Amino acid sequence: MNTGKSHTMYPSTSGTSVVGLVYDGGVMLAADSLGSYGSLARFRDVKRLFKVTDKAALACSGDIADYQFIREVIEQKVRDDVCGGYTRELNAGALHCWLTRVLYNRRSRFDPLWLECVVAGYKDDEPFLGYVDKIGTAFEAKEVATGFGLHFAVPMIREAREKKQNLSCDEARKLLTECLKVLYYRDCRAHFKYQLADITPEGVTIHDDLNLKKETNWEVANYISGYE
Amino acid sequence: MALEMMMSGPDYMRDPRKHQFSPYANNGGTSVAIAGDDFVMIASDTRLSRGFNIFSREQDKVFPLTPKTMMASSGCWADVLTLNKVLQARLTMYSHEHHDMMSTTAVAQLLSTMLYWRRFFPYYVSNILAGIDEEGKGVVYHYDPVGHMEKLTFSATGESVSQIQPLLDNQIGGLNMLGVKPPTMTKDLARQLIHDAFVSAAERDINTGDGIIIHTITKDGKTEETVKLRRD
């Protein structure tokens, strides 16, 4: 199709999985901080998780540039809401709904924002965790992941929930770190540095510069042979 | 898909290392509707998937439109959400203008028109609309993604249509049997058929499963029932 104008139809610098889960008393969200350029681990400290308001946090995988663009738009929206004197700040449900419309519109114009987003937070005092992708597929669930996380993290969380329905804050944190560890072991585009957001009715806490390196063990790597 | 071929040539010409953008996805889902003399039942499974991934095990795909109509949609979930949102807005505008709810027949025609409006960039959605008409009878409308509409008394759509539709044709339509009169539809029979149809579909189709939500509409209002399905 030659329209005289060409749109980005594939990502360049991209981030891999995001994992999120709802636990008893809040929502947790985690993403590593690697910006891959194809198979090159190009940027090792790109933040792709941010606090939107006291009631919402957003993390994206996919094109980092598109993420940074949408972050700017959302941050301006939040500033407009504050300056406009709106008493109810943008909650996670509203953000998720808005993001779905924006991404669907862009895909319909064949100029997609190459993203898979996870929105975490609160909607009317109820914990909220939702997913939206570049074509506008959106849903809510108790556990959500993007990219490789869909294959590795989601089954781990669902299995944990089958053993114990409600997870405590500590259990959730432990489970999420375990998921990231598995992803770091198996996903070539994953990294040991990560960010984690904990959203409770009190607000959003973001833990930056967390590290998985001490928890991983690569000793068995020496026993793998036959691929030289 | 024809649209993709038109844009980028055949797939063997594409760079295998690069991502190709497609505006559509198949998120599975199956719906069934059966009408009776004074009721209509509309049901869908609750699995939302893409490829081998299960996104959600509890996604209802039947949407309430008016007190007397409901729509079940499946296919590309992004389009399902959008179509539903636009349709809801149109119904609200109508009710504000006319101080009345739109009739089932009018909703049915509106849906067809809205689908055809996007004829050359279609909503990739299979719809069934179920409701109570002006005479108080149960009716079912079946659509294709570009707006072809057919009024029926029973129908299946979505991922498992090829498994369920022949079953309904046989059990409700009395087709392919000699000397058998089609049964009079009751709520019990409809519920039983819907249950059996989904159980068999979930057995064979990986994109159908987890659960069924069965909605019943009568002149007195709506009720719903949830039934479990296999989750593997």
Protein described:
The complex is a heterodimer of chains A (228) and B (232). Chain A is an alpha+beta fold. Chain A has a single domain, classed as Aminohydrolase, N-terminal nucleophile (Ntn) domain (Glutamine Phosphoribosylpyrophosphate, subunit 1, domain 1, 4-Layer Sandwich). Chain A contains 4 helices and 13 strands. Chain A has helices at 64-83, 92-108, 148-163, 169-186, and strands at 13-15, 18-23, 26-32, 35-37, 40-43, 49-53, 56-63, 115-123, 126-133, 138-140, 143-145, 193-200, 203-211. In chain A, strands 1, 4, 5, 6, 7, 8, 9 and 10 form an 8-stranded antiparallel sheet that branches. Chain A has a 5-stranded antiparallel sheet with strand order 11-2-3-12-13, covered by helices on one side. Chain A is globular and about 65 Å long. The termini of chain A are far apart. With 232 residues, chain B is of the alpha+beta class. Chain B has 5 helices and 12 strands. Chain B has a 5-stranded antiparallel sheet. In chain B, helix 4 packs antiparallel against helix 5 (187-204). The longest helix of chain B is centred in the middle third of the chain and has 22 residues, at 77-98. The radius of gyration of chain B is 18 Å and the shape is globular. The two termini of chain B are 29 Å apart. The mean pLDDT of chain B is 94. At the A-B interface, helix 2, strand 10 and helix 3 of A face strand 4 and helix 2 of B.
General shape of chain A: globular
Distance between the termini of chain A: 45 Å
Rg over CA atoms of chain A: 18 Å
Number of self-contained structural domains of chain A? 1
**Shape by Cα distribution of chain B:** globular
Structural class of chain A: alpha+beta
How many strands appear in the DSSP assignment of chain B?
12
Number of E strands of chain A:
13
Quick summary of this structure?
Chain A: Belongs to the peptidase T1B family. Chain A has helices at 64-83, 92-108, 148-163, 169-186, and strands spanning 13-15, 18-23, 26-32, 35-37, 40-43, 49-53, 56-63, 115-123, 126-133, 138-140, 143-145, 193-200, 203-211.
